[in-house]
Specification:
Organism: Paludibaculum fermentans
Largest sheet: 4 strands, antiparallel
Helix content: 25-40%
Family: Belongs to the UPF0166 family.
Number of domains: 1
Strand order of the largest sheet: 4-7-1-8
Protein name: DUF190 domain-containing protein
Length: 115
């Protein structure tokens, strides 16, 4: 049995149209996380959601949104996530986007080959 390791899961809620320079913000975040050798990052596209504006974003055909909700999840040690936060802050500030970031402690179980 694997021993659970303490880690942190960072969740970044943003929109499909949020940009960082010439790239989508979600893509820029994942590429920067990879460059900084964080353990892993995943982008999820939501079929429906709303944020602080309460404007509904949905993929339903009768109201097709062009700014679908996206979620970037990053998992790593507390120290590496803390070091990443100022980088993320700079990217979000430069993009003039409105994002929501959450942080929670998680237990990580490793299965399979770990390289």
């Amino acid at each position: 049995m694997n021993i659970p390791e303490d880690a942190v899961q960072l969740r970044i809620f943003l929109g499909e149209n949020d940009r960082c320079g010439h790239r989508p913000l979600y893509e820029a975040i994942v590429l920067k996380a990879r460059e900084l050798q964080l353990a892993g990052a995943t982008v999820l596209r939501g079929p429906m959601g709303f944020g602080q504006s309460s404007r509904l974003h949905t993929a339903k055909l009768e109201r097709l949104s062009e700014d679908m909700p996206f979620l970037v999840e990053i998992v790593d040690s507390k120290e590496k996530i803390e070091a990443f936060l100022p980088v993320l802050d700079g990217m979000v500030t430069a993009s003039s986007s409105s994002v929501l970031v959450t942080w929670e402690g998680v237990k990580v179980l490793r299965y399979g080959k770990v390289s």
